[in-house]
Amino acid sequence: MKDPDSEAQLPLPCIAPESGAQIIQLPAQDRDLAKEKTYSATAGGAQAKAVTKRSRSNSLWYALYLPQLRELDSAQQKKYLTQLAELMQSVSSTVSFHPQALICEIRSSLKYFSGIDAIHQKLQKLFEEQLQQWAMADDFSYAASPTVSGSLLLARSGHNALVYQKENLRSALGQLPIDVLDLNKEQRRRLLNMGINYLRDIWRLPSDGLRKRFGSNFVNQLNQALGKAAEPTQNYIPPPEFIASYDLPYELENLDRLLPIADELLAQLCDFLRRRDLSTSSLVLSLFHEKRDRTEINIGLRMASRSQEHLTLLLETHFDKLSIPAPVVSIKIEVKKFDAFFAKNDSFLRDDELVSTPYSNHNLIQFMEQLQARLGDNYVKSVINTAQHCPEHASLHLDYKEKPNRKIGAALSTETPANPRPLWLLQKPKQLNINKGRLFYRKPIAILSGPERIETHWWSGADVCRDYYVARELSGSKLWIYKEKNDAGKWYLHGIFA
Amino acid sequence: MTTIQNHSDTQQLYQNQYQPEQADAFHGAGSSDIDELIQSNPNLWRGCDMAGQGIQGRSTGFPQLDEILPGRGWPEKGLMEVITPHWGMGELQLLIPLMRSIVEQGKWILWISPPYLLYAPALVQAGINTDQVLVVKLDTSCKDALWSMEKALQTENCGLVLAWQNWLPTKVLRRLQLAADTGDTLGVLFKHHDSEHSPSPIRLKIQDSYTENAGFNESEVTVIKARGNFRSLSANINLYQQP
Fold first, then answer.
1. Third-level CATH fold of A242-340
2. Which tens digits make up the pLDDT trace of B73-107?
3. Is A285 helix (H, G, I), strand (E, B) or coil?
4. pLDDT tens by residue, B176-212
5. Is the dihedral of CA A163, A52, A153, A205 positive or negative?
6. Is B42 on the interface with A (CB under 8 A)?
7. Hey, is the C-beta of B134 within 8 angstroms of any chain A C-beta?
8. Most exposed residue of A30, A105, A143, B216, measured as fewest CB within 10 angstroms of its CB?
């Protein structure tokens, strides 16, 4: 396909017959003139201005309007648009957000994709798939023109129009009804009362009067559409991503040897984070092997960090426990999730107040992560007191990581039973023998106090009906024993006061 | 008796013999000033003084035990061995006042593979905030448990590290002791058997003192060795202060 400008305004194949885009052959000398203008200006003082003017006039904006997003609130809309913008990035590096619409610059990609048709088809396919996946109507209107607002207005009107030259924009836009503009009720009523139904009717009115009656926003909107005013846009910025890899010159089996290389990659990562004022809380390190699946190490941090020292230490700890199936040929570090970086704050006046700040736990959190990296996920537990009557369930051992989300929030308790409880509980109550009429564990037992009746969990099938006693063994240990009411009065040891 | 303790005894003799004359000689200069000067220097060892060495211990919560410990309480840092014939002889009761004061300081307590489940209601009853308690599970391998203990001792946020390990070589104990010194942390090792040549600065033993008359009331706590003490001392303490 040739340069689109040489064919001037060709409607897209799917343009509706009532399309407002006029097809006007651009006179060849016109284009040459435009070129000359710029070149001649290079010598003059207006150089910068001319160049910017040329670059502006040269851009072509492709707008996609999705009326089905109208019912959603702005946050949800933004979420959907962000995902679509990600898709749109495949054809253009400049994608901007507008209400229910996305607009991208495609002039720079025309040559690469060999024409606007190819770009349109590619986007249409991507968007339709994505919209179907969301179970939404998969139709949308689109338009391309040299200005952002112009494209938006054309797309909003439902005319799938294509306008290549700015000069033709005025006539193309003129045919659109006034509903495509962002009008409030009052403005709309007034325009209709004035007998204005199309934009071309507005062109005929003096702009001073319009500005006076409808405000400068209204006039600005029109000027922007015609390319007479600057159009600030809110562009889509893709989330940062860090991938660094290193192919080893020779195979390595010893992970200790790998550490300096991994350290080098981590240095790159920390540099990346520092430049963008970010920190990270999860990274994936992959070790590649010949003819084997790669080994992946997921390093998760409890508190986002960008300290190379800490990350190296964690990696070292992981390497300690790691066994690899084959020698390593390549190593890669990947980070996709980032957090804002919060520097450590020092107290200004009093040192003793530092203890209360959450940052004082910084070392501890690093230590806990190291502990978890070495021991495994399920080995570090926090102990939680719950408001449960049944002794087995009154104490919960949760994963250290699980703690902050407080799933069991309602059951948390600082209340304790009035009767003493032992520091140690047996995982499974141990049956006690009776020897010569005396209770016997390792040595004879004498009861000190009791009983405390605990009856609960009758609803769960595992009925609990016990009489608890505090007892002392002849060896000196203080024990927590109970007599089962249902089970023929057997005695059990349940805890040690230690 | 170890050689060190013998040495202490001779020093004590030496001091007993010569101190009166020295004291007389300095009377003119004002003995209280000199006493103060001696007190202020923590590097000066005075054999006959229990509170000496300038160590200010943390009260154990048991007055009888404070009496027989150098510095009148637990040391601020270092390794401590608690020897009991079997688990659950009141060794945790002995440490509860210490745990409470450590939690109040905002530091953490790490329990490394305790032999039974740690029971939260009892901790709350003892006034220990469970938010600052962490447990490393029992089925952790010995190597990992020791690694955790060393790391925890080096971390300043951990105030107390409790571990249950029976047989540890001197080299390991020495390493743990060094780690505790770096982190200003107190580590407690619970064991069944006493080893005479252990490098830990404090070794305690808890025995039952069951007699027909006194019943179960008190346990005998023996300070086998404590840096600063010159012989082993023991006290009878009622460890279970709660009814």
1. Dna Ligase; domain 1 (3.30.1490)
2. 888 888 999 998 888 888 898 899 999 999 888 88
3. strand
4. 998 888 888 899 999 988 888 888 888 888 887 665 5
5. negative
6. no
7. yes
8. A30
